[in-house]
Design goal:
The structure holds two protein chains of two kinds. Chain A is an alpha/beta fold. Chain A has twelve helices and ten strands. By secondary structure, chain B is α/β, with parallel strands linked by helices. Classes of the chains: A alpha/beta, B alpha/beta. Chains A and B meet through helix 9 and helix 12 of A and helix 20, strand 11 and helix 38 of B.
Chain lengths: ~300, ~1100
Amino acid sequence: MEGEVTSSGPLVMEEYIAQSEPFYLPIGEEVPVFEAAYREKIPVLLKGPTGCGKTRFVEYMAWRLGKPLAVVQEKGRAAAQSQENGHVGRPLITVACHEDLTASDLVGRYLLEGDSTRWIDGPLTKAVRSGAICYLDEIVEARKDTTVLIHPLTDHRRILPIEKRGQILEADPGFLLVISYNPGYQSALKDLKHSTRQRFISMEFTYPPREAESLIIAHESGVGPETANDLAKLGEKVRNLTEHGLQEGVSTRLLIYAGKLIQEGIPSRRACQVAVVWALTDDADVQRSIEEVVSTIFE
Amino acid sequence: MAELHSWEQALLDFSLPVQDEYQKVAPAVRARLTQEEYEAWVQEGSRLGQKAFRAWQAAVEYFRASPAVLEAIPFRRLHGWVEVGEALAISSAELASAYFRASPAALPHLSQGDLLAWAETCARLYQGEWQSGALAVKLFDASAQLLPALSISELDQVAHVLEIEEGNSHSLAQQCLDILRALLPRFEAPQREHILSLAAVLARRSPERAKEWLGSARGILARVEHTEQVRFLHIVEKLAWLERDQTSVMDYLYQGSAALDRLDHTVHAKILFNAEEVLNYSAAAAKEFVIASATLLERLHPNELEEWVEEGRLALREREDTGIAFFKLESGRAQEALRRLSRGVELSQVGEVLRLYCKALTGTDIQVQPTENLTHRGIGWTAENRPTTEGSNVFLPPFVQVYDSKQENFGALKVYATHQTAHLEFASFTFGFLREGILFPRLRGAVEETVKRHSTSITDIERFLDIFAVRRLASDIFTVAEDARIDGDIAREYGGIRSTLRRVQRDTTHTRPFAASLPLRTAVLEALLQWSLDPDQPQELPQRYHRHFRVACGFLAKLQRQKCLVEDSAEAVLRIYIVLRSIPNLSPEQTQTLPWTPVEVPPDLNPEEEMADLLTLQSSSGQALGSMLKKLDEEEDYNPYVPLSGVEYRGDFKPELVQTLMKIKEQNQADPNAPIIPLTPEEIKNLMDKLGETEIGEFLVGETDSTSGMFVTNLLREAGQKAVQHAGEVRPTEKGELEGDEMQTAAPLEYLYNEWDFRANDYRHNWCLVREKVLEEGNPAFYDEILKKHAKLAREVRRQFELLKPEMFKKIKNLTHGEEFDLDQVVQAVIDRKAKITPSEKIYWRRNKEERSVAVAFLLDVSASTDEDVKKEREPLDDLTDWDEDPRRYLLFFRERMQEKEKVRKNRRRIIDVEKESTVLLIQALETVGDAYGVYGFSGYGRDNVEVYVVKDLKESFSPTVKSRIEKMEPVRGTRMGAAIRHAISKLDAYDAKVKVLFLLSDGRPQDHNYGRDRTEKEYAIHDTKEALLEAKRKHIVPFALTVDREGHDYLKAMCDGIGYEVVEDIESLPARLPSLYRQLTF
């Protein structure tokens, strides 16, 4: 794994090429659908609550859609670490969007260097150039001017205008824009505009069913199948409270954390308290209710 | 008169009645006395008769009483007796008569010395005129009843009380005496003493009260444990001494005794002992303590009272009012202490937690409610304290106190809740007659066919139970089996609650009836139930039926141990029923002779095989089972089946009713236009008949048409309500909520709020009831008219607000990262470097979006005073009588009048009109900036009737409807600001915004009915309002008070200590002032 941060500050960016297969348990038809979309260069919108596996899915798909080693080598990195029958994933650039993320944060900016200025590519530009999958997480959080960039990239044109340099960049054939969007907690103000929405095919993600989730928890945290099943059960019960006291149900990620703590020897009730109860809400009544659910399930 | 002796001559001077009476008694007296004594006796009489003008009357009585008196006292005391009478006769002949008349009854109870005291005591009441004389006579008469019981000193007390009463009213004194003569002999000396001394204290303050007390004393004291009556009275005496207001004494007597009567009389000693303790600090507090004792002991153990009193004593030491409020259970402190001291768990405290808990387990929107909410609906549930569910909500007992600690009690309550939700989660109520189970082959269809019992059923479960002849037995087995399955599921699914569940199960077995005391079939079922609760406990049964029991256990064990469905429970019921039916239902007397031994249940038993073997079934087919069932059901039984008593923690399980309800609901939902009665009343009646005798029980006593009709109506109404909506907390006071019109459109929105009592320095818990009402719609043109009228001002305000908008985007310079270079900074940096100075890295700028997030609630005072004219020089209304002080009619009239005279002269402008105008302008301005705002009017009358009128709710968006509501704001009544403010706070608190403002616009000081100790007290209201405003601050809401009361400065200063306020001197400037104030506050 290798990352490169182009700018410090509030911008969080990861770029890496997966070296080994990320664990992903397909729940429905999402894998063939995504593959087809990739082949047809159709941008993808992933909808779903936080921590239900959207990012992991994109990582997994990036790995699956990986191209032969040689092509990656052209980019001049990661060659040495290649393994597993020479299979290396497609590069994936993930940008976690936040409310101060502007278009220039995505496209790039000039830096002062000596007496002159130097242009540095933003993550989106990098992906467009190199043919990576660019994953804009929580896109609605970003400022509205980012849509100016997204629109031409996501129709037949597949171009990225770089205003400050007066350039127009044509996307590499391998480039695909994937955005994610959590319809649950954004206010109506931040809803995705239809002109944006309708440029993507949408894939709905929900939390996995109990059996699948317990497999995921067992795999990721290393707890036994029984504990994993109890954790999945807890997840299911707590999610029943969504919209009634809880803004968002407990994510699979948190359940995995709880599993990891249990694996570390923390008593299960305590592990659930810190990983689930306190992590989810500050409302004392709701906390108490969830704690009661925890104490009902775990000894 | 035949011949007269010399000593008799004197009698001739008297009137005939004297002579007659003498003649009448003479023979009897003569027989008793010697000649000498006899002569003396006659002489005494004649001397007496001559003592005064009408003393002859006394002489009559003297002679009449003599035979009896002489029997009671020796002759030598005769003189003394007459002497006393003579003395009385001098002042009043009536008194003397009464004295002699009463003597025969009184003398046996009087010693020689007491005689005079008695006479003096009675005669003391005589004040020289006829009324007091009559009273004294009456007391002599009453002595006949009183003296056998009372001592002379007590009689003296009686006279004392009567004297005081007499001083006020003769008739009252008379009535008191009547009451006393009947009352006192019923009590013993110590009680009598207190009854009298209390009467004396009361009489001094209010003779009426004293009479009231004496009149009700018997009833009151009957409610108090005999040995504690003195203590009870001791407290009230002290109270009566200290309190000026005697009504509070009567309160104590009535309410205190009523409270004690509600309790087990054995705890009276403890309560009154503690009350005396409190009495040392405050009599008023002791009174409240006794009155509240019944409520208190619902929550506390009598042994915890001492701690409670100690807690209260601390409060009293701070301030007496604090302590009184504490003992009244009105202060927050009391509630807190109660919660801390009590071991029990109140549903209202944990209801919300459990609601979310149940919702989490089932995933459906379950409400948790106290059981009484269900029993009050009259749809077949009757047990007040048993947990249950009707398919969509969970009902739990309001208070649980079965264990010694709070935690354990909560655990128990949680088990109750879990069991009920498990019925929903593991689908007890979705039984399908034709659906396959998992464990057992489906035989019920074949059995039904073989049995061929005629059945018209609404639901599947009903159809299933119709198979059986002894329906109640089948339904009891079904309850045992299904509950066992559900508990098994809980234990398997929820490892954490397993141990608590086991404990509750084990403890339940201790409260179960003894199997040997029941008819045999019930006994086996009881043993089966207990075995399912605690398999480790050996069950004893007659040896001969061990096998039957083992087979039944085998079926239950399967249900408990494996994941299965309700259909499996039904199949098990079918089999267990047959097994139990093959046991003769011997009476306990008959089974006594049989050897009862513990049954051993092998862990791995194939019940199906065992059963076939036990009952010698040819095959395990449905037909074979069916014909066996048919045969058994046709057999004559020894005794009728005695139903099994319910299991406390599992509560009421009524699958038939639930399925019926669900079915009606389903049909209603499927076709909302369908008639509200999807099932014919006959069908429901039929179901009811099946349930009637057993399940609905006492609810349908007599099964008259009216009760059954009511049941059907209730059931249908219940199903008609799509969902039972409940506003937040569980409130036990909402009994009446479910009554009323069937067409419930919108249940009134009611909220409870605390109120600050500055004396107690604490909150009065849930003191005010706020009703939220959405104003009806009026003329929407009103809004535009105002805008037109104030067109210039409106434009001005709008412009000011529009100017504010661009401030939302701010360009921020001097950043290390940003959108673009800031050219000035770049140039500076280059220059710096050329000059060999370290350049600044902050050469970027970016636009920062400052999101305006303001929520504001406007509270407008619409109390009666806003009806006043803006201009003080009010023209008197010529036709005042036209509207009879009815504001509505007045307003109607007023509006008409206004329209008429509009052109003729200037309109009458009321404060509320100005308020409305200001509101319109403000709304106009706020719509420009896009802040969230709510506009509410408030008024009301009394603490249980605070009304908040919604013009525009915070979450509502502006619309013509809002426009039209403004017109409808009209003056109402009082100004209970505190409650209204708290309501606005809770609205703002629930709204997500960075800046929250509470704007209070009033026209005078807060005042309302009972808003303070008495009418004149103003501090209470001001303190409460102040506290409410401070609460707002604590919740990060900026409160601001604006008043148009020119005298507002004095109280606003106290009310708004540290809070912004303004007094608008010229009310006409309000429309202009309000928007500009708003700008200042929020920008």
